[in-house]
Design a protein that fits this description.
Layout lengths: L1 E2 L13 E18 L10 E18 L5 H12 L5 E10 L4 E9 L11 H10 L1 E2 L2 E2 H14 L5 H10 L13
Antiparallel strand pairs: 1-3, 2-3, 2-4, 4-5, 6-7
Helix pairs in contact: 2-4, 3-4
């Protein structure tokens, strides 16, 4: 399993092993309109997705073969509730140099919940979003905090949190690279 967001610190299963890993060709982005966990259909929030381009540091979580079916079913139930993510196996490089195939959830750019827009709109969506999992702002703050604790720098998310919390002057720059 390749984890790039909350699955890194809250996988809801006990991994047999965890390794720092890099996924090439995809990057972590606030590109998913959340209508359940961090927002509603009327007032969506914004959450992470793996979007095309760049690379992403995350964690490879190894699942014991005998547990795979149950873990996969639980993860699919958690992540695939609206169809905005596409599950697939992706090649990742572990910190020890090995390359392995990892199950991951990448965004579906054709889905109605895929979002790409200006920074000021991202800030608005995050400030308004509140769903069954709590506020979108808390999701972003927890992500920034956990990434920092894992030694993963994501300056884009850190700057976004500062903007959401009112710490940066308004500028018309885009959120996506």
């Amino acid at each position: 399993m390749f984890a790039y967001g909350s699955l890194m610190w809250r996988p809801d299963f006990a991994p047999a092993e965890t390794h720092p890993a890099r996924l090439a060709g995809w990057h972590r982005a606030m590109c998913i309109l959340s209508t359940v966990y961090r927002g509603t259909p009327e007032r969506p929030g914004l959450v992470l997705g793996l979007d095309r381009g760049g690379s992403c540091l995350g964690r490879a979580l190894r699942v014991e073969a005998g547990e795979w079916a149950a873990v996969k079913a639980a993860l699919d139930a958690r992540e695939l509730i609206t169809g905005v993510y596409r599950p697939r196996f992706v090649p990742v490089r572990l910190d020890d140099g090995r390359r392995v195939a990892a199950y991951a959830f990448v965004c579906d750019r054709d889905h109605r919940q895929y979002w790409s827009g200006p920074l000021d709109e991202a800030v608005r969506l995050i400030r308004q979003g509140h769903g069954s999992g709590g506020p979108a702002r808390d999701y972003l703050a927890s992500t920034v905090e956990h990434l920092h604790a894992l030694g993963i720098a994501d300056s884009r998310l850190h700057r976004l949190l500062l903007r959401v919390d009112g710490g940066l002057a308004e500028t018309p720059t885009a959120l996506q690279p």
